[in-house]
Amino acid sequence: MDKKNYSKDPFEEKIDGLKPEDNKKILQVFRSKIDNQYAAHLISCLHCGLCADSCHYYLATKDVRSLPSYKLSLVEKVFKKYFTLPGKKASAWFGAKGLSKDMVRSWVDSLFGRCTLCGRCSLNCSIGLNIAYLIRTARTSLAAVGLVPPGLQSTVSTAIEKGNNMGIPREDWIETVEWLEEELQREVDDPQAELPLDKKNTRLFYTVNPREPKFFPLSILAVGKIFYAAGESWTFSRDNYDVTNYGLYSGDDEASGLLSDRLNKSMETLGAQTLVLAECGHGFNSNRWEAPEWLNKKYGFKVKSILQVVAEYIKEGRIKLDPFLNTKPVTLHDPCNLVRLGGIVEEQRYILKHAVGRFIEMYPNREKNFCCGGGGGQLAMTRFADRRLEAGKIKADQIKETGAKIVATPCHNCIDQLMELNKHYKLGVEIKTVCEIVADALIV
Q: What CATH number was assigned to the domain covering residues 323-441?
């Protein structure tokens, strides 16, 4: 943002109003998250430039501020200044810098505004630095003094206060499920078909992204149809059903733990055996891998992606698919948090190869696939929207090169970003979840 507009922006005014005690808190929180291993990561960057080709922001703009090594250097400079003896004694000589208001602005601009925490840079790092962790740690430090960009913070706050990140009232959620249950009964011609709410002692408790009941209800219907065809024992929850956790992006570990613990409590209340996470990249990473760390406890139940469940149905013959019901060529976008950071790589491919007539891989793919640009909280931070669309050109070009007519992706954040890229870059494709494609191929 141009300096002349700082006074018109409450967030910029908040930075201008930082007090010494705020800076002290930022540094305290930051140091508490950096153990010896990550301290070594911070001061070990060789500035070799190999990470440049990994970052969609840099590739799209060639702006040096988007280089992963540059972003890391902003954090490194502050660490050296306050937590290393050479940095304290000879700051200029050792490249150390204090946490001035200009540095805080640089942190916000590069660490929030030029990074999706996709982790691809670490794949190309010649010494394997966990750059995404260090950038998120700096975000955590800013969150400690309320310096999370407003749109992202609003999403976290809405989830905490309203029970889901879209602020959907409980009665609206229940009415949506009841309406979709009637639709399911008509589709499968069975008045006994159900979308159960708060059913006790089922095998599966299925969560959803609140954007589904709000904007994409057919995604819910698709999963209900799959569960029906498989004869599954499952349930929704009337209250704690939100798979998303934008605390992962804001860096607020306390909020992150609170949101994930709600699903943990629903599991205890419902007595289900397995927590099944909807098609949501960061929701999977948060609730499968990060939550036990945030909550400092082990889960007493299994946690799976819906993709793992559907792949098992196909392998076990519990559902039958006719791939020729999906005649258009389909490509697959790999969500960063699900694939590169979550380990769910082959299940979606196995599913699509059974559900569509022609499947085309993007290149590169799997853990090397490029981020679509919608992660890291970018979709919630309108102040960086133009930059997000510009960086998304890398993904748009990947899609064009496949010649596919449908882009499947198991993540609603990715769907929202891909829909914007589809319009902005005139791709002329359809965007669907994997389960929607499976439902279209189901033989009931």
A: 3.40.50
Numbers of helices and strands, H then E, in the chain = 23, 8
DSSP summary character for residue 420: H
What whole-number distance in Å separates Cα of residue 27 and Cα of residue 77? 12
* Predicted pLDDT of residue 6: 52
Q: What pLDDT does 92 receive?
A: 84
Provide the pLDDT for residue 90.
85
Q: How far apart are CA 383 and CA 353, in angstroms?
A: 40
Residue 442: phi and psi, rounded to 5, are: -65, 140
pLDDT of residue 2: 47
Are 69 and 107 in contact, with CB atoms under 8 Å apart?
no
- The domain 3-147: what is its CATH number? 1.10.1060
What residues does 407 pair with on adjacent strands?
331, 431
Backbone angle region of 271, left / alpha / beta, with phi > 0 → left and psi within -120 to 50 → alpha: left
Name the burial class of residue 17, with classes exposed (0-12), middle (13-18) and buried (19+) by CB atoms within 10 angstroms of its CB: exposed
As a whole number of angstroms, the distance between CA 351 and CA 307 comes to 8
Per-domain residue ranges of the chain: 3-147, 155-314, 323-441
- Residue 64 has, within 13 A of its CA and on its CB side, a CA count of 4
For 174-203, b/e burial (b = at least 16 CB within 10 A) is: bebbeebbebbbebbeeeebbbbbebeebe
The per-residue pLDDT for 444 is 87
Which parts of the chain have pLDDT scores under 50? 2, 4
| DSSP β-bridge partners for residue 359 | 330
